[in-house]
Amino acid sequence: MRYLAALMAGALTVFAFSPFNWYPLSIVCLALLFLLWLGAPVRQCFWLGFLFGVGMFGVGVSWVYVSLHDFGNMPTPLAGIVVAIFVLYLSLFPAAVGGLQAAWPGTKTLVKATLVIPSLWVVSEWIRGWFLTGFPWLSLGYSQVGWPLGGFASVVGVYGVSWFTAVTIGALVAAVINRFRLAPLGIAVAVTLMVAGWLIERINWVEPSGEPVKVALVQGNIPLAEKWRVDRRAGIVERYVALSNNINADLIVWPESALPVYVDELPKSFWRRLEDHPADFVFGILERRKDAAGDKHYNSVVGVSNSLSYYRKRHLVPFGEFLPLSLWLEWLLDYLHIPMSDFSSWSGTQAPLMAAGNLLGVSICYEDAFPEDVRAMLPDASLLVNVSEDAWFGDSLGPHQRLQMAQMRAVEMGRPMVRAGNTGVSAVIDHRGKILARSPQFTETVIQDTVQPMTGTTPYVRYGNLIMIVLFVLGLAVAMVLDLRPKPRIR
After folding, report:
1. Where are the alpha helices (DSSP H) in 104-150?
2. Of 29, 73, 189, 478, which is most buried by a Cβ count within 10 Å?
3. DSSP bridge pairs for 450
């Protein structure tokens, strides 16, 4: 029953994230896991954490199967096996937290619940966010977007929000376990943190920069089965130009690889049509360059203003955009027939793009899931732009989870975010993470709104994850002191 409870708690935790946003479930489900862990032996805690992970990732990243099977042409059995291995790998992180907290030498319930487990949990999320190129999905902090504890994001980022959320959960767990002695303290800690998050969210770390910008996001809704067909290229280019013709905006954004051609293949007549438009453009396209190492292909964004400027993707998707361990796995790429899956990662420094009178911090696809990647453009950029191809996720949880991540980036950076996706969700988000406008999925549409560019530096932009690292190191250090100090003698 304990193992079944852990599995079900993990699965239910997914409903705390977008598109459901039942954030109290993250508190309840993690509290149940903490309760199962406290007092249990190391091996049992490991498996409890593992099964919690199987439930959470098995449900929460089920969209990986859609990408592999529906759009990557992988047979059902093989796609199921690959997803199962991936889920088991991700489940090792909460399993490690369970085993390590059980092996912690201290036994004080309050200390372990409020300091040890939260600190270890955040360490595991942080490592998962960069190890083997990183997979930061379903970090606990994302479940708090729009809620009181999410207010800490501008100071400590998503991992810091995870830490404060876990501390809140630990305090409530300690109150439940020892209702008479620890209940008032535990409840006081939880309420204090929620009020503090609510108050911090209201601090103005940034200020308006210049005039508001009228933005338009063009969602072409091109099926992947058609997008890369040679006979459809000209029609797709014409569709995006036609959808943009009568738009009254300062900035028009098209999605990732909106035009399925190389930039050098576009005729001069195309560029003249954009230059004649009163708005500036930002859109995704393919780019090929030759250097000493040979031909290289980039997933790029071009900005069309007084001149052309480029951003090239740095953080590529394994298997989707490049092949890890290519000497051994090249057969897999040939088998899957994924179009445009051999890109190069841009290794040089990149400045924000200039368009609509502002410096734009650009990210492509899931780069906006990595806060350090977005932070690299700050504080110079006054507006964030993400272009995506969410058709790979189909009608799954994936696009909604990505939108929630974009909301978190806006709060962390203190900048509005506009994101254009081929099939949606396209959205306009203000600098506090509030969605101002969003598109329906799988619809050809244009959404328009006005955003206020911002200037200034949030603590997270200034210090990155340093504050979060100090928090969990300090948490473990304080726990060690409290747990290991000698008990006073009674005379």
Report:
1. 109-111, 117-128
2. 29
3. 214
Q: What is the pTM of this model?
A: 0.94
Strand partners, 449: 215
Residue 303: closest CA among 349, 243, 357: 357
The residue with tokens 């479940």 is 143
Separation CA 174–CA 171 (nearest Å): 5
Give, for 232, the enclosing helix (H) or strand (E): none
Integer Cα distance of 387 and 368 in angstroms: 10
Helix axes 153-177, 466-484, angle to 10 degrees: 30
Ranges under pLDDT 50 in the chain: 490-491
Nearest to 446 by CA among 234, 235, 253, 223: 253
Segment 318-328, tens digit of pLDDT = 877 776 655 55
pLDDT in tens, 473-485: 999 999 989 877 6
CA 449 to chain centre: 23
Encoded amino acid at 447, one letter: I
Burial class (CB in 10 A: 0-12, 13-18, 19+), 204: exposed
Number of Cα atoms under 13 Å in the Cβ half of residue 38: 24
Instruction: State the Cα–Cα distance between residues 409 and 425, nearest whole angstrom.
Output: 16
Helix axes 2-13, 42-60, angle to 10 degrees: 30
DSSP for 436-455 reads EEEPPTT--EEEEEEE--EE
Query: Residue 371 in contact with residue 157, Cβ under 8 Å?
Result: yes
| Domain edges within the chain | 2-204+464-484, 210-457
Mind listing the pLDDT tens digit for each residue in 46-103? 999 999 999 999 999 999 999 888 887 788 998 899 999 999 999 999 999 999 999 9
CA distances from 362 to 46, 59, 282 (A): 40, 30, 9
- The continuous run of DSSP H or E covering 188 comes out as helix 183-200
Q: Taking a C-beta distance cutoff of 8 angstroms, is the pair 414, 206 a contact? A: yes
Backbone angles phi, psi at 376, to 5 degrees: -60, -20
Tokens 């399925």, residue? Answer: 260
Pairing of strands 294-304, 435-438: unpaired
Is it true that the peptide bond before 19 is cis, omega within 30 degrees of 0?
yes
The closest of 427, 323, 423 to 368, measured between CA atoms, is: 427
pLDDT at 348: 82
Residues 6+ apart with CB under 8 A from 264: 287, 288
The residue type at 442: F
Per CATH, the homologous superfamily of domain 210-457 is Carbon-nitrogen hydrolase (3.60.110.10)
Residue 484 CA to its chain's centroid (Å): 38
Catalytic residues: 256, 313, 365
